[in-house]
Amino acid sequence: MRIREMMRTTLATVGLDATFAELVAAHRCHNSRLVYVVDAKQHLLGVVSCYDLLRSAMPFYVDANLAKALPEDDTVIRDSFNSCQDKTAADIMTREITAVSPEGTFFAAEALFTKGRFNVLPVIEDDGRLVGELTRRRILDFLAGHCGL
Questions:
Q1: Quick one: which of 106, 139, 102 has its CA closest to 4?
Q2: How many CB atoms sit inside 10 A of residue 131's CB?
Q3: For 96-112, what is each residue's pLDDT tens digit?
Q4: CA end-to-end span of the chain, whole Å?
Q5: Rounded to an integer, what distance in angstroms lies between the CA atom of residue 36 and that of residue 23?
Q6: How far, in Å, CA of 133 to CA of 14, rounded?
């Protein structure tokens, strides 16, 4: 069973110049853990996770002790999010990406999930074009259906 058979192909994609607000909107509108940053030919350039967005928006110096002292209103959060308005996907994205081929097997993907502690893997063709994503959930759903469960 190949990854091509179980991958998801409806993905959230943006260009390098996508704004912080566009990245947040893409995350909120799509049922995916990642927003994929691609060029005009759909070559994968990077990924933006919810963690990447929150890390960009929240002050780096906030720790558990300081968090207790912050006001309970949304002033700090609003200010943090507003300060990100000039950031783009190019500023925020993770560039080091572990990906799989659509011709790979789910066994190989599961090994990567386990080794890298990933929840989602981009699926790219040999030429670097993004064609899908694979999650453990997709594998489970596919295998359960295949086994009649």
A1: 102
A2: 17
A3: 999 999 999 989 999 99
A4: 17
A5: 10
A6: 15
Into how many domains does the chain fold?
Answer: 1
* Residue in the structure block whose two tokens are 């060029």: 39
pTM (predicted TM-score): 0.86
Q: Which residues pair with 120 in a beta bridge?
A: 135
pLDDT level of residue 77 (50, 70, 90 thresholds)? confident
For residue 32, the model assigns a pLDDT of 78
pLDDT at residue 59, as a whole number: 62
Name the nearest CA neighbour of 20 among 59, 44, 55, 53: 53
Residue range of the domain that includes 62: 3-146
Which residue has 């086994």 as its token pair? 147
* pLDDT tens profile 28-40: 998 778 999 999 9
Q: Where do we find the tokens 């607000």?
A: 21
Environment class of 31 (CB within 10 Å of its CB; exposed 0-12, middle 13-18, buried 19+): exposed
Q: What is the CATH number of the domain that holds 138?
A: 3.10.580.10
What pLDDT was estimated at residue 57? 85
Six token digits for residue 123: 């699926």
